[in-house]
Amino acid sequence: MSQTASSQSDKVTVSGEHEPNVTNTAASQRPQLLYVGVVFLIAIGMLVGILYSQNHKKKPQTVTAVCSSTFIKQSNSILQQPDTDNLGRLANTVEATKNYAQDPNCLYIVTLYYAAIGDKTQAASSLKATKAVYNANTGFSTSFSPPASLTYLESVVHAALTTTDNMQSTVESQL
Question: How far apart are CA 138 and CA 62, in angstroms?
Fold first, then answer.
């Protein structure tokens, strides 16, 4: 028996034997390969989606302590006085501190100042920023005297906004 190489492929055939029908076998495997490929792509897509969502989950926000307990204790006497000049200096000190906007205690002081001077735009903005970084589980520093609370801060800002609006209405009605 002699072996010859086929010109159409690299297969060696034995003379007198029938070559198996490779074409039909390859055609029948195509749908299986297509199915495996689609499943593989779906699995890869799901894996990418899971990894993406894990990396982009909102991480728990940690409270940055910028305004220390010592600073807050020293500020208590100013916070209890109706003196807006001293409160303004205190607020300026806080606002000059790096990352003060990440500390709800710092923002509490700044918000009280803006409410005290009747700056309703800044008071509302500071209150919103305070709420954004405030964590109900940790609350405000226990160094505030009287104790700080978000409810109190909201009422002070609301009163300042209402008072400012009432004063403006009174002035406008007198003109």
Answer: 10
